[in-house]
Amino acid sequence: MHLPPPVDWIIMHSCLGHHFLLVLRKQEKYEGHQQFFATMMLIGTPSQADNFTYKLELNRNQRRLTWEATPRSVLDCVDSVITDGDCLVLNASLAQLFSENGSLAIGIAISASNTDSHESQM
Known about the structure:
This protein has helices at about 45-50, 80-85, 90-100; strands at about 5-15, 20-30, 35-40, 50-60, 65-70, 70-75, 90, 100, 105, 105-110, 120. The protein contains 3 helices and 11 strands, in the order E-E-E-H-E-E-E-H-E-H-E-E-E-E. By secondary structure, it is mainly beta. The protein is globular and about 40 Å long.
């Protein structure tokens, strides 16, 4: 949390026969106003990404914040996902509410969007 922006953290998660990337970005919207952006990207095509749903969850001090969406393909640019606002967006004070010792723990759940729904959590 305390690294100066811009900075990206990327974690790969493999489940349901595919590879996903959790991208967490810290950037300054304008001087002194820092924001955090989190999204899941599928290493695959946009039509493959449409077959999944992901959930990001922040949970601390009797507070819970959840974001659910369809992942975007890595063929889409992360910058455009963030510019479009198609991701979890936190300002610095909200991120601070969910941080512990300078770290922001994000729970991840990925499920298949079809009727044979399978779910994988991290």
